[in-house]
Design a protein that fits this description.
extended; mainly alpha; single chain
C-alpha cells in the first residue's frame, strides 16, 4: 500500500496566515559575543531563546 503524500504546502500556508494575524515580530541586534553567549546558555539550560525573551517582556510590562 503506497503512502499518501502529505499536504505540507497547504498546512504551511495556513500556519503562516495564522501567525501573521496573531503574532508580531520583534527584532533586536546585539554584538556577536552576547548572541553566542545567550545561545550557549539557553541551549545548556534547555530553554528556548524565544521563551526567555517572552518572559522578559511579560515581566517588563507587569513592572510598575
Amino acid at each position: 500500500m503506497a503512502e499518501k503524500e502529505r499536504k505540507t504546502k497547504t498546512s504551511t500556508a495556513v500556519k503562516s496566515r495564522y501567525n501573521k494575524k496573531a503574532y508580531d515580530v520583534i527584532s533586536v541586534r546585539v554584538p556577536k559575543d552576547i548572541a553566542e553567549a545567550f545561545k550557549a546558555k539557553s541551549n545548556a539550560a534547555g530553554i528556548p531563546q524565544a521563551q526567555i525573551i517572552k518572559k522578559a517582556i511579560e515581566e517588563f510590562l507587569q513592572a510598575k
